[in-house]
């Protein structure tokens, strides 16, 4: 696993937005960020799940989070702008954004990719990342040191048969990360992409239903890289694809 031992409260006084915060990796990252002192803005489409994460964070005595219910499939660019303005009004700045929510679509031969699946995957995995990044950069610029973190995949820099729209959306996500990282190289914003590697979540179970779950990482296992990339210890890391499970 990624070797990083965070100091207690390494994220104190930081406000961090997490998309897809109600389940899987996003849920665990939200709880970890709060544990290390951050105020977490929980964005997701299923309010009951976000409320469960909220309750867990508050019960543990961590800083009270905020909830943003938003379905990234239907959300407009204006919805993201409004959210970013609210973040600036309420918190004054944003120190981190983990753009984590994604959908798998369907694993199918390229010739059989349905237009609707293509459109949905591109909307959630790519267009929404663009709207989010563009809307959030002004809030991130108000922090002395901020981290914009996209989420990629093992198929995000090497194409794989049958992973069509998902794989292609992750390639584009890595491209967006590199463009932003280059443009903001001399600024207080750093921009990277994290590759979680095989991790036991609903998405992984959908892609590999017959897999022995005990042989892959848990969401807990991969958290050191997620915390590192939000902490000031990574402030000089920019434009990188980081493996949460280096080989
Ligand atoms: P997951 O368990 O399926 O969780 C995805 C999260 O995204 C859920 O909270 C889900 O909300 C949310 N989401 C999906 N569509 C949304 C929408 N339209 N609007 C708002 N939120 C939406 O997946 P995961 O495995 O944790 O994946 C997290 C990230 O890691 C993804 O970017 C994925 O591509 C990447 N990744 C995962 C693995 C792995 O092995 N798990 C490997 C490589 C990359 P609901 O709970 O409401 O459905």
Number of strands: 7
* Uncertain stretches of 5 or more adjacent residues: none
Q: How many discrete structural domains?
A: 1
* Average residue pLDDT: 98
Strand content: 5-15%
The top-level CATH class is Alpha Beta
Q: How many angstroms does the end-to-end distance come to?
A: 8 Å
Oligomer: single chain
Record the strand order, biggest sheet.
3-2-1-4-5-6-7
- Describe the global form: globular
| CATH superfamily membership | NAD(P)-binding Rossmann-like Domain
Helix/strand order: EHEHEHEHEHEHHE
CATH architecture identity: 3-Layer(aba) Sandwich
Helical run tally? 7
Q: Using the CA coordinates, give the radius of gyration.
A: 17 Å
Identify every distinct bound molecule in the structure, by name, code or SMILES. Answer: NADP nicotinamide-adenine-dinucleotide phosphate
């Amino acid at each position: 696993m990624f070797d990083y031992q965070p100091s207690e409260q390494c994220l104190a006084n930081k406000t961090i937005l997490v998309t897809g915060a109600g389940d899987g990796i996003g849920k665990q990252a939200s709880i970890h960020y709060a544990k290390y002192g951050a105020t977490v803005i929980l964005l997701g489409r299923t309010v009951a799940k976000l409320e469960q994460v909220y309750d867990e964070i508050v019960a543990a005595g961590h800083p009270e989070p905020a909830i943003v219910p938003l379905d990234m499939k239907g959300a407009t660019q204006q919805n993201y702008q409004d959210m970013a303005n609210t973040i600036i009004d309420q918190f004054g700045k944003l120190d981190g954004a983990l753009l984590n929510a994604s959908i798998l679509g369907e694993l199918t031969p390229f010739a059989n990719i349905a237009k609707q699946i293509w459109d949905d995957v591109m909307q959630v995995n790519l267009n929404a990342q663009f709207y989010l990044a563009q809307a959030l950069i002004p809030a991130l610029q108000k922090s002395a040191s901020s981290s914009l973190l996209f989420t990629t995949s093992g198929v995000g820099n090497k194409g794989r048969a049958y992973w069509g729209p998902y794989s292609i959306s992750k390639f584009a996500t890595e491209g967006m990360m590199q463009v932003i990282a280059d443009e903001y190289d001399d600024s207080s914003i750093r921009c990277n992409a994290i590759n979680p590697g095989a991790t036991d979540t609903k998405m992984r179970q959908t892609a590999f239903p017959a897999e022995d779950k005990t042989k892959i990482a848990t969401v807990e296992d991969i958290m050191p890289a997620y915390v590192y990339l939000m902490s000031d210890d990574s402030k000089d890391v920019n434009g990188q694809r980081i493996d949460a499970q280096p080989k």
